[in-house]
């Protein structure tokens, strides 16, 4: 289990690379969405492998580095590639960078993912603003001895996805004429895609989309008092909804198609999260 000093050691190392720069917003970029890190102005790159206590991303399309700089006029810390429990990491490993971000001064987080659509009204290419999530099975990311410097032992999850940020994202999406939805994200640990029966069960429970990430980081950010905006890109219809198999290639191809719209949405929302 990590101790407070482990997070401090990571943050102190990063500070030697970024100097007086203070990030306000942490951005965690999902599958096929890492291109946004390339838009950062005057970037400082730090590979995960060089940061004490950081784990290394093993997913092929996840670069595995932090990017610090300006994006849409905001001071950002971008995770260009994230970590997943299916890579063999504990949930505390996956969420480790969130606590480091808090120590660096981050007050808000914009987290994205590629997900499968469960709601029959959803289409591939839709953007879903996350209003809530369902998590049932994985080990908790803040389990173990509580680190009081980050938050209380027991904490509320009622208003996890910031309502103001959600309204901003919906309004900006409509202004940009993007296919905007709002719904519930179901967290499945993967790496296999879900069975049709699991998808039917998720739909009954009230889920609109499903993915293999996001929730460990969100829980940890909530514990830290970081305000959260989550956006899912619907890259495929979930198992059993189309007469074909779900593939990682399909997910990445659809993410590429949505690059332009996704970039416009994120760049328009970021300035509203600055304060």
Tell me what you see in this structure.
This protein has 275 residues and is of the alpha/beta class. It is built from seven helices and nine strands. Strands 5-8-7-6-9 form a five-stranded mixed barrel. α2 packs across α5 and α3 packs across α7.
Describe the structure concisely.
With 275 residues, the chain is of the alpha/beta class. It contains seven helices and nine strands, in the order αββββαββαβαβαβαα. The longest helix has 15 residues.
Write the layout of secondary structure elements.
Layout: H1 4-18, E1 25-28, E2 41-47, E3 65-71, E4 74-80, H2 91-104, E5 108-117, E6 127-135, H3 163-175, E7 180-187, H4 196-205, E8 209-211, H5 215-224, E9 227-237, H6 248-257, H7 259-269
Parallel strand pairs: 1-4, 1-5, 5-9, 6-7, 7-8
Antiparallel strand pairs: 2-3, 3-4, 5-8, 6-9
